[in-house]
Amino acid sequence: MASTRDNGTQARPQVHDAFDNPPKGPVGVHRGPRSLSVRVLPYLLVVVLAVLCGLGLWAAVSGSLPWQQTHTDSSRVISSHLPKRSASSSASESKTSAEESSQGQASQPSSQSPSASASSSSPAPVVNRGTQVAVINGTRITGYAGNKRQVLVNAGYTAVTATNPQGALSGVSTVRYRDEGDKATAQEVASLLGITQVEQSSVASTPVEAILMQ
């Protein structure tokens, strides 16, 4: 331990105090500046505490937090803008769909029936311009049957003869045919010659004969 002498007196021990071991760095009025984070931290704590106190007060008054209240309000607005369908409209729509389905099922057999009938029916008669056709002149005009024969020849008929009547004739121009298969040919002959009456006859002299009368 260090000791001192005072004017030749006996040395006495030196007592250490706080000034013998000062802290490192500047102290007192010479203390250095604090960092920015240290200075801002108290203000941040005050702001956070204020926000928490405000949220707690809001929750105590309204019973929910602010963002929960906003979500509930937006859900109510969306639901209010959605179209409302009444029970009567739903029932009418279901009834309409049921009627449409029943109509569709009922129309299936009817749509199949024409095809079935078409397949079972016999083929349509075909005009045969090679069949024998007799043009009988029942008028008093000479060469009248020959002129009509030429009309049929020009139309493509290849077996046409012009002749005079062999017995009594009806008073109306007529085209007669023997078999049902010659009906289409007789109808075309009548159309070419301007005759409206066409009939089936078993006494026709040829498969098709055209009787010309005034």
Task: Give a topology summary.
Elements: E1 3-4, E2 12-13, H1 36-62, H2 66-81, H3 87-120, E3 133-137, H4 144-154, E4 160-163, E5 174-177, H5 183-193, E6 197-200, E7 208-212
Parallel strand pairs: 3-4, 3-7, 5-6
Antiparallel strand pairs: 1-2, 5-7
Question: Can you describe what's shown?
Answer:
The structure is a single chain. The protein has a 5-stranded mixed beta sheet with strand order 4-3-7-5-6, covered by helices on one side. The protein has a two-stranded antiparallel ribbon with strand order 1-2. The radius of gyration is 63 Å and the shape is rod-shaped. 46% of the residues lie in helices and 12% in strands. Strand 1 and strand 2 form a beta hairpin. By secondary structure, the chain is an alpha/beta fold. The relative contact order is 0.09. The protein has 5 helices and 7 strands; from the N terminus they run E-E-H-H-H-E-H-E-E-H-E-E.
For the biggest β-sheet, the strand order reads 4-3-7-5-6
Helical content class: 40-55%
**What structural category arises from helix and sheet content?**
alpha/beta
Q: From the alpha-carbon coordinates, what is the Rg to the nearest angstrom?
A: 63 Å
Largest sheet: 5 strands, mixed
Q: How big a fraction of the residues is strand?
A: 5-15%
SSE sequence, one letter per element: EEHHHEHEEHEE
Given as residue ranges, the uncertain stretches (5+ residues, pLDDT < 50) are 1-5
What is the 3D shape?
rod-shaped
Task: Please give the number of β-strands.
Answer: 7
What's the mean pLDDT score? 75
